[in-house]
What does this fold into?
Amino acid sequence: MYFRPMPHHTSLIAMLVAGFVLAFVLGALANRLRLSPLVGYLLAGIVAGPYTPGFVGDAEIAPQLAEIGVILLMFGVGLHFSLRDLLSVRGIAIPGAVAQITVATTLGWGLALLMGWGHMAGLVFGFSLATASTVVLLRAMEERRLLDTRRGRIAVGWLIVEDIACVVALVLIPALAGALGDGDASAGEIGIALLFTFLKVGAFVAFMLLVGRRVIPWLLERIAGTGSRELFTLCVLAIAMGVALGSAELFGVSFALGAFFAGMLLNESEFSSQAAQDSMPMRDAFAVLFFVSVGMLFDPIILFDHPWQVVATTLIILVGKSAAAYGIVRLFGHSRSTALTISTSLAQIGEFAFIIAGLGLALRLLPPEGLSLVLAGSLISIMLNPLLFMLLDRWQAREDARADRERPPEPPVVPVDIEGHAIVVGYGRVGAQLATLLRHRGVPIVVIEDDADLVRRAREDGFTTVRGNAANPRVMEEAAPDRAKLAVFAIPQALEAGEAIERLKAANPGITALARAHSDRQVEHLLAHGADAAVLAERELAYSLAEMIMASPAYRPPRTA
It folds into this structure.
């Protein structure tokens, strides 16, 4: 008997499968090579694109998946938007980012004119080169534990200003494109077009502030009250997608702006952290598809047909923006180390560059080779960014060593009359509470912390504090481990703690060393490097809850007569 096979409409499925599989394989390879996974995602798009042999993704479905990726990316930006972080460094981040964006846009505009493009194409192209990738910058900062430092806060504040500038650009570019569509628009027509755009955006903002600010948190709170995690996640995604579509249909603003405002208003809710956590897998998945779809538009032949344009674009990103950022930071009186950290962090472009360039291409403001040049500059700059940070790390190490040699002898941080003390490594949330509890029990405390703000806070709290990394032998020596009885490592970095414990035991074999861990493997690592005990936080929490339960009246044994 013959059975006719069931028909399958596989274009969407094939696009999703190819996108995820290629992105996973090439993203994992990039991560193995200590590059940003974004490089792998973009290469996956190039492999699936029409300019390379083999599988070719659906050219109609890919842009729609990219649009969903843009919505969720902008929703995530709004969800993590922190006005407090921006205001804490507003004196340098706002003027610095504006000046750096102006310099990079001007350089890109000049290059576009040399290539024979129009002024509007040059402005879109230049602005695409002005904004750094949040993903790449945050990863570099996290690896060096700089996010909580002054340098890290300046970099994050700088990024926030760039994000705001991109949101404004997403509003203005379509309006300018409509006004300049015929090429001979007068100043009055341009002004009228911009006025109508701002009126529509103003109406949308007013609606979101008056209605959305009340409805969105109220709805999220009611759904959270049901206790259903899947309903809560669905509610978050419905808010992001619904507001994005509604803003476009009712107010004529972009999907991106609507999603950004949805995330920003959701950030005011007490459930914002849970919303961010639950929506992260979906946001990450479609963000990957966004990068894949952008990579599909890249024509590798541009590397051979227009090599000097590729080199010039890359130099604007690596040298032009970085030099501008360095000069601005130094002009505001910050140290050379801070200036180099900020300029190195910004020496790359990423997701917003693709959004702006893709919008310019869709509105026919930017020629196809413009997007290819942006993609080529992004790939090269993201691949070179780890190398630049490696050179910066080496320079910083030499400067620290020179400063140590030139620094005059100082009295010991830990007075000679302190002995039998406990060394608390890390003054974050865990370390600060631990140090306070030990002091209340009469234990002398010496804190080791490398973050300047936490060092200041520890000293304000009255603790003897050594500034630096505990894995550094000189820093550990300043804490007088030979006179200490106990060392508690309250930092979450198990590898760093293990290295420090090994040196600590070499200096004082009789000292008791305790550490915190977040997995069984970390416990094994810490014990293997000399720790006397390692506390697995989740397990201790379970033990404490079990003891509380067994001590409750419901489980007490009945009294016997």
Summary: The chain is about 70% helix and 5% strand. The first helix runs from residue 11 to 32. The chain has two domains: 14-395, 422-554.
